[in-house]
Design brief:
127 residues; mainly alpha; elongated; transmembrane; membrane; transmembrane helix
């Protein structure tokens, strides 16, 4: 039987509320970028369906060009989003590390607590 336990945080409650708010806002941006990776997949499925439905109506050369253009656009989108995700993750890590160093707390334990907090509240990925 699964029990819902209240998570006891040792380090995070000792940080200033303003600092935590800024950190959580930055995490929300990171989570938003992470979720936008799904957009190309959502676009790709209808595009593939449309391509299949017009397969017999257009010459093969045009279909190949259209498919290549669509795949290039999606690849560029994924590269841009991945770059933003990496930058945002670095920002969150730097801020968390600076907060941990200011309080002289071990960064790895603070990071674990932060990951537990955001996974519970935001249902997002850890940093």
């Amino acid at each position: 039987m699964h029990r819902n336990k209240k998570i006891e945080l040792q380090y995070l409650p000792n940080f200033k509320e303003e600092e935590m708010e800024v950190l959580l806002i930055e995490y929300e941006r990171y989570n938003k970028f992470s979720n936008s990776v799904k957009i190309p997949l959502i676009i790709l499925l209808p595009a593939a369906g449309i391509m299949r439905s017009i397969k017999n109506k257009l010459p093969t050369n045009i279909l190949v060009v259209i498919a290549i253009v669509i795949l290039l656009i999606l690849a560029i989108w994924l590269i841009v989003i991945t770059n933003r995700i990496i930058k945002q993750k670095r920002i969150v890590n730097k801020k968390l590390k600076a907060m941990a160093n200011a309080q002289q707390y071990p960064f790895n334990k603070v990071k674990k607590e932060f990951n537990v907090l955001v996974r519970k509240n935001y249902k997002g990925s850890k940093i």
